[in-house]
Amino acid sequence: MWSRAPTGTSRTALISVGLGLVAFLLHMVALGRPGPWDDEAVTVLSVRRSLASLVGSLRLHDLVHGPYYFVGHLWGSVFGTEVVDIRVLSALSVGVATGLMVVLGTMLLGLTFGVSSALVFTTLPRVIWTATEARSEAIVTAVVIAAMISFLVALRRDSVAIWFGYGLLLVLSFHLFEFAVLNFLVLPLVALAVQPTRRAVIRLCVTTALAALACVPFLLHTARQLDTISWIAQSFTLNGALKAIWTSQFLTPEGVPRWVAIDVMVWLIALAGILLAAWRARKDLDARVTAVLTTGWLILPTIFLLGYSLLVTPAFEQRYLASSAPALAMAVALALFYVPLPRRKEVAAAVLLVLVMLLSSGAWVRYHQTWAKSGWLEVAQAVQANKKQGDVVVAAGPLEAASVVVLPDEFSGLDVINIDVPYYADNTPWGRVTMIGDDPKLLNGHQRVWYLGADGIAEADAAAFKAQGFTERWREQKYRLGAILYERDQT
Fold it and tell me: Distance of CA 229 to CAs 77, 224, 316, 327, Å?
């Protein structure tokens, strides 16, 4: 029976809070520099609704993210609803997750391992990304780590209250993001490694079953909105998924100098850590529990989601697996913890840890560029530099109209003239626009019009501009958004 007792609880708590705070401040740096993109715009539009309006919208679309939008709505009511305001919640969540990693690692192998795991975790490229995202990945990751901690505590103490807390965290994880449940596939294997009492096994099974039952109503409702992930099928390929798994799912993305060498190096370190722990696991129960948890948490969510995508319907998206990033951090930390080092082991381990963390510096720079997520901000700044009083905007779709909403400074003074239903109207997820090709009269009385589209302009819209006496004067196309300036010919 695994009964490793935590040591230096107050010291662990102090270091956990301290590292969490440092991580939060680190991820606040340049938080507003990357421009927003489609998903972040949807978050902003959702959290700005009234609660009644949000409920009505979720009946039609995006219910799977509904609980996160409610959290964002409450956060926004206090701290603001601009993109950067919501990103602060993600940076804070990463800070909390970093502190929780100290606790989790300390429970497994001691404080040194906990600190190493936390530092590697908070500097992983995927974690850097989630800290800058006005989406649910960061808060989901924090809740998943908390659930892992509560699971281990419940196995050790076998308390009804702690099992209840574990069950609540399972339910919360699932409701914040359904794919988060994949992280818990490893727990039966961990229970086998721990060799708990029969009573603890019964309580584990009962708690898990009750948590699963509590999730069924939400699952049934979200199953009616499978179109939420239908877009994945348009671009999913096995080769693309495999490439993402060993690179940008957790590590440095393509385009960063020496990204291949960096990613290969980190994976080799992680593999070495798992193998070293597995070797120690023959005689060391702590090492066995850590090796099983780390390995299963790292690979099972990816295998399941990839298998489901190949056998049932494409659902693989690397961002969906962000909450299993802590496992990679622990695998790397295992290598630093078990690798044979000279006499001054602490100093050598600290140097290696810093070097591993610095491997993510290229990814940090890339993920904090203006264009890191999309070209929305670049296009908006170009429009801002060339707009004149009296100019208006025509949006190719609701998301293009949303870019004007989430970038108010750049698009100030520019009204979107073809909005049919605004985003905040009841019973619509993002609003609706009228295509200019369907109603060219919307251009009447305007001399200069900015057309915003994700990929150029539709033929019908271009023909409508031409028929109304407009000529294209300027064009700027970036990733996910472009702007075309049309000016009415002087007669």
Answer: 29, 12, 9, 26
Q: What share of the chain is helix, strand, coil (3-state, %, to 5)?
A: 65, 5, 25
Residues 185 and 301 sit within 8 Å (Cβ to Cβ): yes
d(CA 358, CA 342): 22
Tokens 């948590």 -> residue: 211
Q: Which of 374, 394, 471, 378 is nearest to 439 (CA)?
A: 394
Which residue, among 119, 95, 117, 124, has the nearest Cα to 28 in the 3D structure?
95
Sequence-ordered strand ranges (E) for 17-151:
none
Q: Which residue is it, tokens 């901690």? A: 149
Task: Please give the Cα distance from 115 to 334 (Å, whole number).
Answer: 12
What's at 351, amino acid-wise? V
Radius of gyration of the chain (CA): 25
Q: Quick one: pLDDT band at residue 348, thresholds 50, 70, 90?
A: confident
In sequence order, the 6+-apart residues with CB closer than 8 A to the CB of 326 are 97, 101, 104, 117, 121, 141, 144, 145, 148, 297
- Classify the phi-psi angles of 339: left when phi > 0, otherwise alpha if psi is within -120 to 50, otherwise beta: beta
Q: Which two tokens stand for residue 31?
A: 């938080």
Residue 95: CB atoms within 10 A of its CB come to: 25
Q: How many CA atoms lie within 13 A of 291 on its CB side?
A: 21
Instruction: Say if residues 73 and 171 touch (Cβ distance below 8 Å).
Output: no
Predicted local distance difference test score (pLDDT) of residue 4: 60
Whether the pLDDT of residue 441 is over 70: the answer is: yes
Bridge partner list, 224: none
Side-chain half-sphere of 432: how many Cα atoms within 13 Å? 8
Q: pLDDT digit string (tens) for 231-284?
A: 899 999 999 999 999 999 999 999 999 999 999 999 999 999 999 999 999 999
